[in-house]
Every structure is written in C-alpha cells, then in structure tokens.
Amino acid sequence: MPEDLVVTRTLVVPAAELSERFSRSSGPGGQGVNTADSRVELSFDLASSPSVPDRLKDRMFDRLGKRLVDGVLTVVASEHRAQLQNRAAARERLARILRDAAAAPPPARRATKPTRGSQERRIAEKKRRARTKQGRGRGGNWD
Predict the structure, then answer these.
(1) Any residues with CB less than 8 A from the CB of 42 and at least 6 apart, and which?
(2) 21 pairs with which residues across the strands?
(3) Where is this region: Disordered (predicted)?
(4) What residue segments make up the domains of the chain, in order of their start?
(5) Fewer CB atoms inside 10 A, N or C side of the chain?
C-alpha cells in the first residue's frame, strides 16, 4: 500500500487521493523494455481534494493553470528501468510541483529612485555610445 505524500509540514496528500497508472516505457531496458510496465503516471485530483485547504487550492489553481486537465495534475516518470524507482521519482516530482504552487508569494517590491551616481553613469555611457555611433556615419564633406 503506497504511503501518504508529504508536500510540506502542513500539507499532506493521503495515498487514497493519488492514482497510479503503469505502462511500457521507451528508452533504456534492453529486451525487458517490451515486457515490463516501468513507466509511471501519477495523478492527483486537485479540484476535488478535501485535503487541500481552499485558500491554498485557489493559489495552486492560479499557478498550475496550464498543467491541470479538468482539475487533475498528472506527472510522468520513465527515466529509470525499474518501476519502483520511477514511482519514487514521480512522487518526488509531484511533491515538488505542489510545494512550489502552494508557496507564499514573495513580498511586493518597493520601488526606489535611482541614485545620482547611477543616473550620471547612465548619461555618460549614453554620450560615449552616441560619439561611437556618430563616428560610423559618412563624414559629410567628400570634396
């Protein structure tokens, strides 16, 4: 029986809300690639999940908008030859995606005025650049 998925200290997704599908994987594996179902699709229905608080659910919907299909987030892992390793990779990837989506937004940046020194450096560089470009043109007097 798979265990619960720990996303953060306060957010734990019960194993009953996760669904796994297995299929044949392309890539490394030799002859076993045609017989072993090592590819893992791990799905989590965010829309109908009672374990995610509503305030977090809204934030996660905003951030995961393009990744969700009918409110379901699906992660695929097929980089390993063994199904067990792919299951662990998929669970880790899903936890990271949910953790990033649930993270608090960064504090708003307070705009500040540019310093006098930075303004002077900017103007000096603009003048230097203008002189460089002016020298590239035709001289004008070709007598």
Answers:
(1) 18, 19, 20, 74, 75, 76, 77, 87, 90, 91, 93, 94
(2) 41
(3) 97-143
(4) 5-102
(5) C
Matching residue, tokens 């310093």: 115
- Please report the DSSP string for 84-129 in residue order: HHHHHHHHHHHHHHHHHHHSPPPPPPPP-PPPHHHHHHHHHHHHHH
Largest CA distance in the chain: 92
Residue whose entry in the numeric block shows the structure tokens 């000096």: 124
Residue 49 CA to residue 60 CA, distance in Å, equals: 12
Residues 81-116: tens digit of each pLDDT: 888 899 999 999 999 999 999 898 889 999 999 999
Cα four-point dihedral sign 5, 8, 9, 13:
negative
Options 3.30.160.20, 3.30.420.40, 3.40.50.720, 3.40.50.300; CATH for 5-102 is 3.30.160.20
- Measured CA to CA, the distance from residue 51 to residue 44 in angstroms comes to 11
Question: Measuring CA to CA, which residue among 101, 105, 84, 83 is closest to residue 32?
Answer: 83
Q: Which of 47, 40, 2, 48 is nearest to 21 (CA)?
A: 40
How far is residue 136's CA from residue 61's CA, in Å, rounded to a whole number? Answer: 54
